[in-house]
Amino acid sequence: MTSAAWYLLRLSRMGPAEVAGRVGDAVRKRRWRRVAAHPPEPIPLRLRRFRSPLPSGALDDVSADARRTLLATADRLLDGTAEYFGVTRHDMASPDWSLDPKTGHSAPADAYAFDVPYRDEHAVGDIKQIWEPSRHQHLTVLAAAYAVTGDARYAERVADHLKSWWAATPPLHGVHWVSGIELGIRLLSWVWLRRLLHGWPGAAELFERNDVALHQVWHHQRWLAAFPSRGSSANNHAIAEVAGQLAAACAFDWFPESAGWRTTAVRALDTHLRANTFDSGLNRELATEYHGLVLELGLAAATEAAAAGLPLPATTWPVLLRMTDALAAVVDVRLRPPRQGDADDGHGLVLDGDVTGRWASLLATGGVLFGRLDWWPAAAQTDIRTAALTALARPQPLEVARPSARPDHFDDAGLTLLRTREGPEIWCRCDAGPHGFLAIAAHAHADALSVEVRHDGVEVLADPGTYCYHGEPEWRRYFRSTLGHNTLRLDGADQSASGGPFLWTRHARSRVLTATPNRWSAEHDGYAPAVHRRTIELDGDELTIRDEVRSERGHPCVLAFHLGPAVDADLDGTTARLRWPTGAARMTLPADLTWTAHRGETHPPLGWYSAGFGRREPATTLIGTGVARDAVLTTRIRFTD
What we know:
Layout (H helix, E strand, L loop, with lengths): L3 H9 L3 H17 L31 H15 L3 E3 L2 E3 L31 H4 L2 H5 L5 H13 L2 H17 L11 H17 L6 H4 L4 H16 L9 H16 L6 H18 L12 H20 L8 H15 L27 H13 L13 H9 L16 E2 L4 E5 L6 E6 L19 E5 L2 E4 L11 H7 L8 E3 L6 E4 L2 E4 L3 E7 L2 E6 L6 E9 L2 E9 L4 E8 L5 E5 L2 E6 L2 E6 L5 E6 L1 E2 L2 E2 L1 E5 L2 E4 L1 E9 L3 E9 L1
Antiparallel strand pairs: 1-2, 3-4, 4-5, 5-6, 6-7, 8-15, 9-10, 11-12, 12-13, 13-14, 14-25, 15-24, 16-17, 17-18, 18-25, 19-24, 20-21, 22-23
């Protein structure tokens, strides 16, 4: 349960305008208790039309592999099987929308939404497990399967689930009416369900001719207009809210308020996309998965506007272009971007099977909409989502400057890549960016000067990931701690101070000193007056990391190197011999420290890797302990065949 102390800390990170807005929200929530079931004005059937189906033949060029993957996933869903955050559910033929299968708890379905203590796992269960199926992205997969096959079984399952969900979660009742990001993504899913089911005879009866559907769509949009994420919370949540609002106000433009909702959403989408994105194109949260989420949401919302013939501000498409170019620049040889900050496996729009590559899909979409640059990595992929989006939004001829060569340094984001150009790629991500976005830096980790190293796409020094948000505070603390990253900890403390699972009360400040194609140097003040400075050099097949602590006194220190899950290690004194199926390396560690290897420890957590939200597996972590004072700690990694 969230404590009073947390609320005071959270309040301290808000400005006057945000405080005033939240007071207004609280008053409105109390007033809405009396009008929870208030219906929209009656809408004549002649005005209820769906105006933006996919053009004929839009999915004809989807690759055979994409179709096969889609149908394999859709057939598992028909059988009632789906996996959410490492938990396999076998009840998805007829799900309980309030059940958390992980803990066995059920959230109260009949309570007024704003009375539900959704952060309390003892009261409702793991909220992510409950929310995720109700984003209805499993239904967009089924609807896509109908669109490419015409098999009515997929459409009928979609209809069954929607009717079940609408009956189980009336407006403003239960946990699914608490968070705006959930409502926004759900609206976007509903728009695409209607679009993909357009050829099914029951589509109109399910949506525009269904008063229950109208009631739900109207209440979702009314909610989003009343309770926007604001101030210190205006991160990716705000973009999901306005993307869903814009999509629904374009595709379901049946209500007297639709024009106003559209106008407001267009402006808000542009404002939030620009606010959430550095000029370099990287996302300001410095959490790579959220770069993907925001790009997916932005592309889907802009596409919806294009399909409706609705002009966008001149700055909207260029932001999405910059984000796409930045993604193309930072991915490794296997088209995987850095693992940085929080990640919860959240997607904006899902139309493909489980194994479709997210990043390749985004690059494929960007290639059609904006044109591939010569330096972009190859990302040949004709996935369902790319085909669908680009059928609605034609190529965007933008007269903006784009990088003439692949960028290695993103000054505003403090991200630098050292990488080889020939032979097996050595890819090294160096981090000296801002601690996070906005006053609370909700999705940041205490990872100043951390490093990731990959060899031909294999994680050698890995960012361990995120694993969880709610319910397991010890694991949440570990995965976002300084110890949980490839950097140096002093005095047993994190570089930045946490005030809760999504709140930082003190932010370490980093600055880049040198950034060239083969050398990077930076420092941070998280241990002021002591300064941690790190220098990394890449010379052929050898990577050298030098850590320096500038201080007038000695500091107990811990230097951590987290190995990827595919890497085995033999530690002998200050030498670690690393092996993985396609390569090997010799790691020479600082002699001033005492080195130990850790794997899969739980008290406290150490030696873990999280490949995705809710999943963790043992991995080796090398820990060096000692005292640092005006000394240089040198680590060398030499890669061998």
